[in-house]
Design brief:
Elements lengths: L2 H10 L18 H18 L2 H8 L19 H4 L20 H5 L2 H8 L6 E6 L5 H10 L5 E6 L3 H9 L6 E3 L1 H11 L1 E8 L6 E9 L14 E4 L5 H13 L10 H8 L2 E3 L39 H11 L4 E5 L2 H4 L18 E4 L5 E2 L10 E4 L2 E5 L6 H18 L29 E4 L7 H5 L1 H10 L5 H25 L1
Parallel strand pairs: 1-2, 6-7, 6-8
Antiparallel strand pairs: 3-12, 4-12, 4-13, 5-8, 5-9, 5-11, 9-10
Keywords: Membrane, Repeat, Secreted, Transmembrane, Transmembrane helix
Subcellular location: Secreted
GO biological process, one term: iron ion transport
Length: 496
């Protein structure tokens, strides 16, 4: 095959042409300065882009020195010796001013690039209760051209976010295990991605933590104590510990009314959301918020505006807020001690200053959570519409977005020039994802239901602490039975 035939075969058998590598600079560089760069590079090619010139420089025939004393220069070729350039390059070409933008340079190739990134779902709306990290998240995903495009919707509570997703105002949100239960039972939402912490599985241990200097506080007798909780109806901070105490007979249940049971057993508490009619449809008990720290309308709110909300908030309540015991996740205390958190309230907190309260009345170090805990709880999960609003195409698009997002931003280190998904800027914590999260994991299809995901033990615990836990399903069953009874009576009447 001749040289011309080889060239023709290449022209015929290819995927198409693409723009070559380009030298770039900041858009802040003036046109005059860019022309200077072009002139400099053109001169560099003239000097070092030719083999002949280098050889002539190092093999000058005009030398009068004896060959044994001559030190030859090592030949330098711009396109072979400089690693920034492609080895097959032969020269550099100056671009006109109109070509000095990414759209002007790429031309028709830009359509191909964007076509690869085409997504059948244009937008995904994430519902958040705090907008402190929302804007940075949206900007970070846009910077990587990730699709579908993410926007944020501010809900005034997790319940409001559930309603927004069901009604199509929002598409997804990140919920605690307790909220995953409510979202599935009452709003037909399904979990599809879970967080992973240090256990390697989408779960964590619920633990009770007390101060080492307070030996009188033990799990089997907390009557009259000051308690710190993550929030009303949340997994580790409310459902699991209250179910444990009630099931073992240490607290009177009052017929599954855990709020009344807690209010009459504990002296003071901080249970964010305990005074909200969205979460407490019964009698409000003021002492359930006596330890809370939020000012004005933020007082005892079930979101980040209340300083003692969430896992870090409950631990902070123990550290500085007068609490005797905090019900939190097994990683929380270790994440906020020994200088890991820089806020003033955590500066003097040491791991050895706190201990786990075990179910048998003993104590253990914070590292012994595997043997000293109240039970396992499923990790926080991202939820979307199920039931009649279920859309497979949308769900797959959401999964792809979060999976690719964590490839770019799934880290915990943070600085002014980068974004990290699993980090919340002080003084906040756990704003969208948990700060303890290490990665996101797609939930298997067979577990994309609140009951299958949370497990039987958690469902049982929820029924112990919440009289209305299964109200929706019970009401549906009652209506079905009533309808069948009326239908049977009418049918019998017609035959008689």
């Amino acid at each position: 095959m001749g040289r011309e035939d080889l060239w023709m075969s290449i022209v015929i058998a290819n995927w198409g042409t693409v723009p070559t590598h380009a030298i770039v600079t900041t858009s802040a560089t003036s046109l005059e300065q860019r022309k200077n760069y072009q002139h400099f590079l053109k001169k560099a090619v003239e000097l070092y882009g030719s083999h002949a010139f280098n050889q002539a420089l190092s093999q000058s025939s005009s030398t009068t020195y004896s060959p044994e004393y001559v030190t030859r220069y090592e030949a330098f070729n711009l396109f072979e010796s400089a690693p920034r350039y492609d080895d097959v390059a032969i020269t550099l070409a100056s671009l006109r001013e109109l070509q000095q933008t990414y759209t002007g340079y790429l031309g028709d190739s830009l359509g191909i690039i964007l076509g690869i990134r085409h997504c059948p779902v244009n937008k995904m709306t994430l519902c958040v209760t705090s907008d402190n990290l929302a804007e940075r998240s949206v900007t970070a995903l846009k910077a990587q051209l990730l699709k579908p495009e993410m926007v944020c919707h501010k809900g005034h509570s997790q319940i409001n976010c559930m309603q927004a997703i069901r009604n199509g105002v929002a598409d997804v949100s990140v919920f605690d295990a307790g909220d995953v239960y409510t979202a599935g039972l009452k709003y037909d939402l399904i979990p599809f991605i879970s967080e992973i912490y240090n256990l390697g599985q989408p779960e964590y241990y619920a633990v009770a933590v007390a101060k080492e200097e307070d030996p009188d506080t033990e799990l089997t007798y907390l009557k009259g104590k000051y308690t710190c909780h993550t929030g009303i109806n949340m997994g580790a901070g409310w459902i699991v510990p209250l179910a444990f105490l009630i099931s073992n007979g240490w607290i009177r249940s009052y017929g599954c009314n855990s709020i009344r049971a807690s209010a009459e057993y504990f002296s003071k508490s901080c249970v964010p959301g305990a005074l909200s009619s969205e979460y407490n449809t019964g009698v409000p008990y003021d002492n359930m918020c006596d330890l809370c720290h939020g000012a004005s309308f933020r007082y005892c709110r079930r979101d980040a505006s209340e300083d003692y909300f969430g896992y870090t908030g409950a631990f902070r309540c123990l550290v500085e807020g007068g609490g005797d015991v905090a019900f939190i996740k097994h990683t929380t205390a270790m994440e906020n001690t020994d200088g890991k958190r820089k806020e003033w309230w955590a500066r003097n907190a040491l791991t050895d200053d706190y201990e786990l309260l075990c179910p048998d009345g003993t104590r253990a170090s914070l590292q012994e959570y595997e043997r000293c805990n109240l039970g396992k709880v499923k990790a926080n999960a991202i939820v979307t519409r199920g039931g009649y609003g279920y859309n497979e195409t949308e769900l797959n698009a959401y999964i792809n977005l979060f999976v690719y997002a964590q490839q770019f931003y799934g880290r915990k280190d943070q600085d002014d020039f980068s974004f990290a998904m699993f980090y919340s800027p002080p003084p906040y914590s756990d704003l969208i994802f948990q700060d303890a999260a290490q990665q996101l994991k797609v939930i298997p299809r067979e577990q994309r239901n609140y009951g299958a995901y949370l497990g039987k033990d958690f469902l049982r615990a929820r029924r112990v602490v919440d009289c209305h836990a299964a109200a929706s399903s019970i009401q549906s069953s009652a209506l079905a039975i009533l309808f069948m009874l009326v239908f049977s009576l009418l049918r019998a009447h017609n035959y008689s």
